[in-house]
Design goal:
Layout: H1 2-10, H2 15-21, H3 31-41, H4 54-60, H5 65-83, H6 89-119, E1 128-133, E2 136-141, E3 150-154, E4 162-174, H7 176-179, E5 185-187, E6 203-204, E7 209-221, H8 227-237, H9 244-273, H10 278-292, H11 297-313, E8 317-319, H12 324-329, E9 333-336, E10 348-354, H13 368-373, H14 375-383, E11 388-392, E12 395-399, H15 402-414, E13 423-427, E14 435-442, E15 445-452, H16 454-457, E16 461-464, E17 471-472, H17 475-490, E18 494-502, E19 516-525, H18 532-541, E20 545-549, H19 554-563, E21 574-576, H20 577-581, H21 585-591, E22 598-600, H22 604-616, E23 621-625, H23 631-636, E24 639-643, H24 649-654, E25 657-659, H25 664-705, H26 713-723, H27 725-732, H28 755-783, H29 797-820, H30 828-831, H31 837-855, H32 857-863, H33 870-897
Parallel strand pairs: 9-20, 9-23, 16-19, 20-22, 21-22, 23-24, 24-25
Antiparallel strand pairs: 1-2, 1-3, 3-7, 4-5, 4-6, 4-7, 8-25, 10-19, 11-12, 13-14, 14-15, 15-18, 16-17, 18-19
């Protein structure tokens, strides 16, 4: 990218030479030249990630593999209607087309709605920038900036483009969006030799923020030429892995299609062997294929995922891509950022050393005596800062460096009545001095207050504040202060020294910072979120490995990791970005075998490399991030999780999910919900396949034994798309099992429809239900005087009542079956019949529809039914009881022979 070419040279030049290198002048570009460059370079906007046109994304919802199977089934139904009109096959075809359209529109609408929600969160580059053109300062839209422009930046501004500083006054910049490092970095206008734009002292980059100071800066790169744009390009180049659910559904679709077509061909061949006419045989084969395809599976799956995503949204997880719900449940490794995800993204005072080193390291507990004795330390923290105040919602807020905000907050809690003593002068912070001093008119005279790095402040101190008179600071005292600072730093704290002095009259400026009195040390940290340790524990219990991947200092990362329980071993490896760059892929994969590992000071491409290595190790990888630097890894991972509050636009666009509260604990809730999704799909898949067998057997009896067709095609479709829809959906949104997070992630190669599920659905529950349906059919026929071999037309009342009985038997047994399918191993007395309102509503609607099908004129007309006698219901009831009893017996045998299944879902 061409910004790197600039960065390799422009930072080495003097300010005058830097301006000349981009053919600009100190008074700014002329309006004519600026317009020419805008036409040449284009607007200063990060290009949108390449996306398919809306119409194509909409159309793709209707050509997924399972949708293609349904299109084929609809086509066969229309073909059958054309060959043999009046059999109701056209109604089936139209109904299947409606199913495909509704499912596709609903899935597209969900993702479209989420994108609009994300659009409301986008606040990335500043809208207006103070720009110098033709010697005048004007407000310009950030997108109008061009290389060669000179911009004016101050505290609170976002940097609109990659810039070389020309003048800098106490400038510090937060690079977290690009580097992941939360500690503000100092910047100045001096030439430097560093080639890394993130470390170069005179470079500020697009997407970062000025936390203190003022600057005049030269724009040298805009749009995709910025470092921001370079990382966005990495994101575009990253491939999107297929989600485990998409892979499973593709396999399931092929399997169901193969079974349906195979059975259809088999019975077509049998029909030809026994002399059935070609067209009659062909119609029978079509009926078998259509009966074997679960038309209700696709809409049920789509609706179940949508309802699950809505439940996850209530737990602060916004899902952009429906299949990623289940992918999160399959996760084996989470690569998480630190700042704002594991921590609160706000600095707080963690430790204090007040004056006399004999006080030792103590947690800050404000009390009257300690505050009065060490009042100068708190006054220093409260007055020596560069913060600005603003009013918002009736309260006063401080803007600027989070560390300074934390110090002022501490001082205000200790000294709530501390006045804003007039500031007379300031000696600003810079990278060489590593300290800042402010001079104030105090009631007892002019006083200087100083804070900064201990190595910069301690040599200037000649005295130390104690609980008595100020004492001279001797060598032994200095050593103890240094030891205390090292102990704080060892805990991952950011340590600042506080000092002060009374300024004598006529004191020269260069002598102001002399003979200071050492007031104390302050250790600050970005504290962990209180929910995170429990979330880490639950991940460990669930067999999910959590790896911290951060741009922060290794010592800080290790300290936070140990505090939240992410690290428990004594010698956990901490690999820095520099060390990572020296590792081969094999070495990295071996390093990832460690039970605990931390990556610190890593760059965007390195984070992506870690993800790719984990994927090669056959892990299902989830990645969290908020910065532009996280976007390539978010795109490469199986499941990318962006931060909704602190996250950048690029990160959100690359992610599959967005955490609305930026909280790691919400990921654990998402994993729990995702694990439930896989089991729920199995539940309603079992439920659907059972009635598919009951629909198939009448066709087989018709083909093999010349039995009248016990269930008409339109009645079979009424079960798929009508009576069973809401109950199947209820199974699809069962809440996670209490033990969902007590089991390891499911094996990656575990299929949705495995052998136990197929045997249970097809050869056990399905055959019981089919037997009930055929028995009810024959019960009505025989009671009406029918004899085997006697022909029946579809208009005969006896035949219509017999098919109604068969349909009713299937629906009644499906009402029982829905409660049996809540668990493959637990008893119905353990799972209960309550606890799932949608399931109860589904059963209620199924009963209402059953009554309507039997006893209302419109139900009779639509489905070709007639009312059945009470004796038929009494005949069906024992089959329902028998199905319940046999399934309970099977579950008891499973629990007895496999104790580990006792608590499974």
């Amino acid at each position: 990218m061409h910004n790197r070419t600039y960065t390799l040279s422009i930072q080495r030049l003097s300010t005058e030479a830097a301006i000349a290198s981009v053919q600009s002048i100190p008074t700014g570009l002329t309006l004519l030249e600026a317009q020419r460059r805008l036409d040449e370079h284009g607007p200063n906007l990060v290009q949108e990630l390449p996306r398919e046109p809306m119409w194509r994304r909409f159309c793709k919802e209707f050509v997924q593999f399972f949708s293609l199977i349904l299109w084929a089934a609809a086509g066969l139904a229309f073909l059958a209607e054309w060959i043999d009109p009046g059999q109701g096959m056209a109604k089936i075809g139209y109904a299947i087309v409606v199913v495909i359209l509704v499912s596709g529109v609903f899935s597209f609408w969900q993702e479209y709605r989420v994108e609009h929600t994300l659009a409301a969160l986008r606040r990335l580059l500043p809208e207006q920038v103070k720009t110098l053109r033709e010697g005048a300062v004007m407000q310009l839209a950030a997108e109008q900036l061009v290389p060669g422009d000179i911009v004016l930046l101050e505290q609170g501004d976002n940097v609109p483009a990659d810039c070389r500083l020309l003048e800098a006054f106490s400038v510090r910049v937060n690079n977290a969006a690009l580097s992941g490092e939360s500690i503000p970095q100092t910047r100045d206008a001096q030439a430097c030799e560093t080639t890394d734009p993130l470390r170069c002292k005179n470079i500020v980059l697009a997407g970062t923020a000025i936390v203190s100071g003022q600057a005049r800066a030269l724009v040298f790169a805009t749009s995709m030429g910025t470092e921001f744009g370079r990382i966005a390009h990495l994101t575009q180049a990253a491939g999107q892995p297929a989600s485990p659910l998409r892979q499973q559904l593709a396999y399931l679709s092929r399997l169901i299609a193969g079974i349906a077509i195979g059975i259809g061909i088999l019975f077509f061949a049998v029909g030809r062997l026994i002399g059935v006419s070609f067209w009659h045989d062909f119609m029978l084969a079509i009926g078998i294929v259509v009966a074997m395809v679960p038309e209700g599976l696709l809409p049920t799956l789509t609706l179940a995922l949508v309802l699950t995503t809505q439940r996850m949204a209530r737990r602060n997880v916004l899902v952009r891509y429906l299949p990623s719900v289940e992918a999160l449940g399959s996760t084996t490794v989470i690569c998480t950022d630190k700042t704002g995800t594991l921590t609160q993204n706000c600095m707080t005072v963690k430790r204090l050393l007040l004056g006399d080193v004999l006080q030792g390291l103590t947690a800050f507990e404000p009390g009257e005596n300690i505050v009065q004795i060490y009042r100068p330390a708190f006054v220093t923290a409260g007055l020596c800062h560069d913060l600005k105040q603003t009013e918002r919602d009736g309260s006063t807020l401080l803007l600027g460096d989070p560390m300074e905000i934390a110090l002022v907050d501490m001082a205000q809690r200790a000294l709530p009545q501390l006045p804003a003593y007039p500031r007379l002068d300031e000696i600003p912070f810079d990278a060489e001095r590593m300290r800042v001093s402010t001079i104030h008119a105090m009631p007892d005279g002019v006083t200087l207050y100083c804070k900064g790095a201990l190595e910069a402040v301690l040599p200037l101190c000649s005295g130390i504040l104690t609980n008595g008179p100020t004492q001279r600071l001797e060598r032994e005292g200095r050593e103890r202060i240094v030891a205390a600072e090292a102990a704080m730093a060892g805990q991952g704290l950011r340590v600042l020294a506080l000092a002060y002095r009374a300024v004598p009259p006529e004191c020269k400026r260069e002598q102001l910072e002399c003979d200071l009195v050492f007031a104390g040390l302050v250790g600050l940290e970005d504290p962990p979120r209180p929910e995170v340790p429990e979330a880490i524990r639950r991940c460990r219990e669930a067999g999910v490995k959590v790896i911290m991947v951060t741009g922060d200092h290794p010592r800080t990362a290790q300290s936070i990791a140990r505090e939240i329980g992410l690290v428990q071993l004594q010698n956990t490896p901490v690999i820095t970005g520099e060390q990572l760059s020296g590792l081969s892929l094999t070495q990295l994969m071996l390093a990832l075998d460690a039970p605990e590992i931390i990556f610190a000071r890593v760059g965007a491409d390195q984070k992506q490399r870690i993800v790719e290595a984990l994927k090669q190790k056959k892990h299902v990888v989830a990645v969290t991030g908020d910065g532009v630097n996280d976007a390539p890894a978010l795109k490469s991972a199986h499941i990318g999780i962006a931060m909704g509050i602190a996250g950048t636009d690029v990160a959100k666009a690359a992610a599959d999910m967005v955490l609305l509260d930026d909280n790691f604990a919400s990921i654990v809730h998402g994993i729990e919900e995702g694990r439930a999704v896989f089991e729920n799909i199995r539940r309603f898949l079992t439920y659907v396949l059972v009635h598919n067998v009951a629909e198939l057997v009448p066709f087989l009896g018709f083909a093999l034994f010349k039995i009248p067709l016990a269930l008409t095609p339109i009645q079979a479709l009424a079960i798929d798309m009508g009576t069973d829809s809401l109950t199947a959906l209820g199974l699809g949104v069962e809440r996670p099992s209490p033990r969902a997070m007590s089991r390891p992630p499911r094996p990656r190669d575990e299929k949705l429809m495995n052998r136990p599920l197929a045997l249970r659905a097809y050869l056990f529950l399905g055959l019981i239900e089919a037997a009930a349906a055929m028995a009810a059919f024959f019960f009505v026929l025989l009671a009406g005087g029918w004899q085997y071999g006697q022909p029946l037309t579809s208009e005969t009342a006896l035949y219509i009542r017999a098919t109604t009985a068969s349909l009713s038997a299937i629906i009644v047994l499906q009402i029982v079956n829905v409660f049996l399918c809540r668990s493959a191993s637990r008893s119905i007395f353990a799972t209960g019949i309550l606890g799932n309102p949608l399931l109860i509503a589904g059963v209620a609607s199924e009963i209402v529809l059953l009554v309507a099908i039997n006893y209302t004129p419109w139900g009779n007309l639509m489905l070709g039914t007639l009312p059945i006698a009470g004796a038929v219901w009494l005949f069906i009831a024992p089959f329902a009881v028998g199905m319940l009893s046999l399934e309970e017996l099977r579950k008891w045998i499973v629990r007895s022979t496999s104790p580990e299944t006792k608590h499974e879902s």
